[in-house]
Design brief:
Layout (H helix, E strand, L loop, with lengths): L6 H10 L4 E4 L18 E6 L5 H10 E2 L2 E2 L5 E3 L5 E3 L10 E2 L1 H9 L16 E2 L4 E6 L11 H18 L6 E3 H4 L11 H12 L18 E3 L7 E3 L3 H5 L10 E3 H44 L1
Parallel strand pairs: 1-6, 1-11, 2-9, 2-10, 5-9
Antiparallel strand pairs: 3-4, 5-6, 7-8, 12-13
Helix pairs in contact: 1-4, 4-6
């Protein structure tokens, strides 16, 4: 049983473990705390998303959908191993689960895979007790788990266990929490826990033989609105020096998108017209060449 990590401590723990982190918008305060408690926390649950495509998946787990408001997890682990932080606090990821499983996780006294009792899917509010990690995968047993993604899953869980002083037995799959869940599908939780346990035997920055650590820097993604102002570059005022609208070198995102669309349509129509003119000239040239050939015969 532990107090949830602060956002800063979580990011620091992930970085120390060698995880590439993207911080999405206002993730530090994006939560469902108004609906109930979060913490003390007892463990971490691994899920799969049933989606493909990183951008759309991030949007889904951040915002939720018509029947389940977001955030749907704390972080989304993409195919390339990047961890996108989308919420911190209570999130809609675990739902109800087996109280016996919770007790096993608290005591860390089980072996093998956990099997929740059928019919206990609404027994305990898992959103209050667990960190939640959605992993980008269709969950059909056919969609692969790239090495970079699986390595990141191991590192994320190890980072949490290391920060709280937990063993790998504090990490479970959603299918081990609730009898009506099947995720994550594609690797065994016993294997994942074994790999987390191995990491915990080494310093946080440890790299297994043959593995690689992310090399791209951490980034911050901000939610962009259509009325946000963006820089247009020095070249535009130089190209159109008398345009008063370019004096501050800023335009709204909406204007930029609209202008880009308008110019692309004009360009497309111009290219179509030019194509027709070229085709007509080519046909006339062919006629001229045919006449010249007849004149030589």
């Amino acid at each position: 049983m532990a107090t949830p990590l602060s956002p800063d401590r979580m990011v620091a723990a992930l970085k120390a473990e060698g995880v590439r982190v993207v911080q999405v918008g206002n993730w530090r305060t994006h939560n469902r705390n108004s609906r109930g408690a979060w913490g003390p926390v007892n463990g971490s649950i691994v899920h799969h998303t049933v989606t493909r495509g990183t951008a759309s998946t991030v949007a889904l787990v951040r915002n939720g959908h018509s029947t389940l408001p977001g955030p749907l997890c704390h972080g989304m682990i993409a195919k390339d191993g990047t961890v996108h932080m989308v919420g911190w606090g209570r999130t809609n990821h675990a739902g109800g689960g087996d109280p016996k499983v919770l007790q096993h996780v608290i005591n860390e006294d089980y072996t093998g895979q956990l099997h929740p009792t059928r019919g206990n899917s609404n027994g305990v509010d898992g959103n209050a007790h667990y960190y939640g990690w959605e992993c980008e995968n269709l969950g059909n047993g056919q969609d692969p788990w790239p090495a970079a993604q699986y390595d990141a899953i191991v590192r994320v869980q190890a980072a949490l266990c290391r920060a709280h002083g937990w063993s790998a037995k504090s990490v479970i799959g959603h299918l081990e929490w609730s009898s009506d869940k099947v995720d994550p599908r594609g690797f065994a939780m016993t294997t994942l826990r074994a790999d987390v346990a191995e990491r915990l035997k080494h310093p946080a920055g440890w790299n297994p033989s043959g593995s690689t650590t992310p090399t791209t820097p951490d980034t911050q993604e901000d939610d962009m609105q259509l009325n946000d102002q963006v820089g247009i570059g020095d070249w535009m005022p130089r190209r159109w020096p008398d345009d008063k609208g370019l004096k501050d070198k800023k335009i709204s995102v909406e204007t930029a998108l609209g202008s880009a669309y308008g110019h692309s349509r004009v360009a497309h129509e111009g290219v179509d017209a030019l194509r027709k003119e070229v085709a007509a000239v080519t046909a006339q040239l062919a006629e001229v060449l045919a006449l010249l050939k007849q004149g030589r015969a």
